[in-house]
Design goal:
CATH superfamily: TolB, C-terminal domain
Strand order of the largest sheet: 1-2-6-5-4-34
CATH class: Mainly Beta
Radius of gyration: 21 Å
Bound molecules: fe (ii) ion
Shape: globular
Number of helices: 3
CATH architecture: 6 Propeller
Number of domains: 1
Largest sheet: 6 strands, antiparallel
Strand content: 35-45%
Distance between the termini: 27 Å
Helix content: under 10%
Length: 492
């Protein structure tokens, strides 16, 4: 392996820190590398071409009070593949907040579990304002650029997908919305359009927009909601964009007093907005379904008169029944809602009938999983396979994957070795791919036994046999959340 250490970032955490999201599998990484001629077990396939990108939330300075993993600054990892070779780089996103805190040598913004007024800074971002936009949630590729997003609403930070040089923020011709963009914009690989929404605490509480393949904001409309909501993700079909108003949101009474606490209203339905891709506010069709909260959607497509939406129905979105006083490591108290096994997140299907206005819904699986990935060529179109993360118990980390055939209902599993955790697993179609699962699966692993990380490469047709190749990284990386695959054809 050839490795160049490019930078070492100045951090400021307590000595012997044992916070569960700043130690162990979440141990922050401060060194930035470029690496090539990487050590490989097995062989990197010749027909794997593109870049796998992963965002990791990395604690640099301790917030004034409590720390939550979503407070970490965005560090992106990039591994590019071409002609059976791989190159790797990792870099912090040089956000305005990251640079200001590096300069100050301490946190200037409060963590998300604290009131924003605890910020030392005089400005901020986010649906509740005065937060640090840390660009540490998602990473997507649009118009050949990597875009890093904030878990509430903020800027989209642009990076070179190979070198990870931060190139400023998206401007969209001067029309980037002042309300920002939520964590999960979506790119339709068939059209090159970027679809997004944002949300906030002032009416109309949500907006929806479309950015053209040329980088112009061509649609931006109000999506009026009954009050402030906490939507995390969106989905699309060929003709429709699907937004949501789910009954887990900021308690209005607390909000009126200036505080932010969540309430789940089991007496309210889940509501889904179907918006024609380039439609207006008046064109929105609303559908109702059973109350739940959904963190991530898998896919959606059109089927005759129906729009079909798959995602992860939380059967216990407020972590009810968890004994918060006993049998829970005190370090982990307050983080129960990060455990998908507690939330009982299971793949689910909604069918919205455009003729009758009715919704039908059904569970697709009894398996607790989340963070689904599909072959991006099937995004918004009919599909058969999703690859979902299996979630470790008691900590926000993944310890395996399930290939879910949503046509037959069959599921096949790969469990990581004891002490190894993996990441959201992306689907990389082979060059000249001939079938939906004629592809590779890529994931970064954290091996806590040997203190090392690999990029693990699986055959998507049968991930149960384990990695067919393992590419070693210079240093064990931190855990994190979202990832993406950009085929070489999207990077030109
Ligand atoms: Fe997410």
């Amino acid at each position: 392996m050839k490795v160049e250490l490019r930078n070492e970032i100045h951090g400021g955490l307590p000595p012997h820190d044992d916070h569960p999201y700043r130690s162990g599998v979440w141990r922050p990484q401060y060194r930035e590398y470029d690496a090539w001629d990487l050590d490989v077990e097995g062989e990197i396939p010749d027909d794997l071409a593109g870049v796998y990108l992963r965002n990791t939330e990395t604690a640099v300075f301790e917030p004034a009070k409590r720390y939550h993993p979503f407070d970490g600054d965005g560090m992106i990892h990039s591994i590019g593949f071409a002609n059976g070779e791989a190159t790797y780089a990792n870099r912090f996103v040089r956000t305005e907040g990251f640079l200001a805190e590096q300069e100050a040598g301490r946190s200037l913004w409060a963590g998300i579990t604290e009131h924003p007024s605890n910020a030392e800074a005089d400005h901020g971002w986010g649906a509740r304002s005065m937060m640090k936009d840390n660009a540490s949630t998602d990473i997507i590729v649009h118009r050949g650029e990597a875009l890093a997003s904030f878990y509430q609403c903020g800027e989209l930070y642009r990076l070179d997908p190979h070198t990870l040089e931060t190139k400023g923020t998206t401007e969209w011709g001067g029309f980037f919305p002042q309300e920002g963009v939520s964590a999960h914009p979506r790119v339709d690989e068939h059209t090159g359009e970027l679809l997004f929404f944002n949300y906030g605490i002032e009416a109309p509480y949500m907006h929806y927009g479309v950015v053209s393949p040329a980088g112009e904001l061509v649609t931006y409309i109000d999506v009026p909601l009954p009050g402030p909501r906490l939507p995390h993700d969106m989905m699309f079909t060929k003709n429709w964009t699907i937004l949501n108003d789910l009954p887990l949101f900021w308690d209005p009474e607390a909000l009126a007093s200036g505080y932010y606490s969540n309430v789940f209203r089991r007496d309210l339905p889940s509501r889904f907005a179907l918006v024609p891709r380039h439609g207006s506010t008046e064109d929105i069709r609303w559908f109702e379904a059973d109350p739940t909260f959904v963190l991530h959607w898998t896919n959606a497509y059109e089927d005759g008169d129906e729009v079909v939406l798959d995602g992860f129905f939380q059967h216990n979105p407020t972590a009810r029944g968890v004994d918060r006083t006993a049998n829970v490591d005190s370090k982990h108290k307050g983080f129960e809602t990060l455990d998908m096994n507690v939330l009982q997140a299971r793949q689910h299907r909604w069918r919205f009938n455009l003729v009758t206005g009715e919704t039908r819904e059904e569970p697709l699986s009894e398996t607790c999983s989340e963070f689904p990935m599909i072959n991006g060529q099937h995004g918004g179109r009919s599909y058969r396979y999703s690859y979902n993360a299996l979630c470790a118990r008691g900590i926000f980390a993944f310890n395996g994957l399930v290939k879910h055939d949503v046509e037959t209902g069959s599921e096949t599993f790969w469990h990581a070795p004891e002490g190894t955790f993996v990441s959201e697993t992306v689907v990389a179609p082979r060059l000249s791919s001939t079938a939906e699962d004629d592809a590779y699966l890529l994931t970064f692993s954290c091996d806590m036994v040997n203190d090392e990380s690999h990029c693990e490469i699986f055959d998507a047709a049968d991930p149960t046999v384990g990695p067919i190749a393992r590419v070693r990284l210079p240093e064990r990386i931190s855990s994190g959340t979202h990832a993406t695959w950009a085929p070489a054809s999207q990077l030109t």
